[in-house]
Amino acid sequence: MTQDDGDLDGLVRKRIRALRVAQGWSLDELASRARLSPSSLSRIENGQRRLALDQLVTLARALDTALDQLVETAPDDVVTSPMIDGAHGLMRWPVKAEPGMSVVRQRLTEPPPDDPARMRAHPGREWLVVLSGTAVLLLGQRRFRLETNQAAEFPTMLPHAIGTDGRPCEILGIFDRDARRGHQQRDSKSSKP
Question: Are residues 41 and 101 in the same domain?
Answer without folding.
Answer: no
